[in-house]
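Colleagues,

Please find the record for the two-part complex below.
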Amino acid sequence: MTHYELLFVIKPTHTQEEIDAHIANVKASIEKDGGVIAATQNMGMRKLAYEVEKHNRGYYTAYYFTAKPATIIEVERLIRINESILKFMTVKYAKKKEIIAWETAVKRLNNPHSAKEEAVAPKVEVAPEATADSEA
Amino acid sequence: MAEKRKYKKRYCKYCETKTDYIDFKNVSSFKFSLSERFKIMPRRLTGNCKRHQDMVTIAIKRARQTAMIPYIVDRQNVVTNPFEGL
């Protein structure tokens, strides 16, 4: 079992129920072949940095999970077929330090305190220099 | 004797906080490594060490692929506030 993170963006034209259904679909495809989802990061509707298939916004969701490498091929195949998913990215956490980072991210997301971190991320930043010191 | 230093001494901001992994979803964590036009800033300007610059580069490229930050900011597609919603 390998540690993975899967981020995907759903089209903004769908209703909330349809979005939830698509998210559930991806979740089912991960769990079908013995994958275990450790944490979910729901980033919500965000503005895209550039136009993707004529859309300017997208619904971001990220899954942290462990699965066999073969599962990823199947999950990505299904995502490519699904026209409602604009973008996706699978990240493998292989090195020891990366796995520690993966575990801390999971802990942070499963912890109720994590709401603070997620609220900060989509905040509007005006001056790039100003963030340098605070975020380091 | 030595020429007077024009800028203050640079140091790696990630080494200071002992960062082991930079999450590409958290754009504000690598914002200062991006120029106004969202190019990756060179190490000689940000002061990042080699190890962390490699991490920043990977995080930025992943963020670009997932439409978190733009690839380019050009004059053809003028955006009123490119930092909005990041």
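Chain A has one domain: 2-120.

Comments are welcome before we finalize the supplementary table.
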